[in-house]
Amino acid sequence: MIYYFPNRQRPNALAAVHRYTSCVDVIQIFGPETAVAYRAPREADRDCFRPSQTLWSFGGRALWVIGAALVLRPPDHPQAPNLLVPPPSILRSLPMLLGRQPGYALRMPSLPNGNSGASPENAARTYIHGPERHR
Fold first, then answer.
1. Which residues are registered as beta bridge partners of 85?
2. Residues 6+ apart with CB under 8 A from 53
3. pTM here?
4. Please, are residues 70 and 64 in contact by the beta-carbon 8 Å criterion?
5. Measured between alpha carbons, how far is 3 from 80 in angstroms, rounded to an integer?
């Protein structure tokens, strides 16, 4: 999923989330020079943008962060990160941004042919988190 903060028309930040059964991989981009990626355990009662622990994290220029996240081993791989540590302080940036915004919109990314790979009704749906819910 791709998230736009506060909205798709004028984003201040972008986030990409890939969910596995046991964990979630997140990339947050605040601009070309500032980004962070992390893997965190899935917690039923916790937003993936506010992890209580991380298994891996990397921060820096957006290009380097995206590259590091793309070569991260899958969670079931023997060499995948498996040591739980407190999240780095930069992970507070997006929640602070969210705290100042009334909500955020997300949309499934589109493939070059315009298809999201999901069903047509889900591809067209915009989700709103915050005061409003699914539209």
1. 54
2. 40, 41, 84, 85, 86, 87
3. 0.72
4. no
5. 25
How confident is the model over 108-127, as pLDDT tens digits? Answer: 445 455 544 443 333 333 33
| DSSP strands (E only) in 10-85 | 13-19, 23-31, 34-41, 56-60
> How far is Cα 80 from Cα 69, in angstroms, rounded to an integer?
12
DSSP 88-134: PGGGGHHHHHHHHSS-EEEEPPPPTTS--SS-HHHHH--EEESSS--
Among residues 4, 46, 55, the alpha carbon closest in space to that of 25 is found at: 55
The two three-digit tokens of residue 59, written as one number: 């921060």
Confidence label for 46 from pLDDT (cuts 50, 70 and 90): confident
pLDDT bucket at 106, cuts 50 / 70 / 90: very low
| CA–CA gap between residue 24 and residue 91 (Å, rounded) | 14
pLDDT tens per residue across span 50-73: 899 999 999 999 999 999 999 999
How many other β-carbons are positioned within 10 Å of the β-carbon of residue 101?
Answer: 13
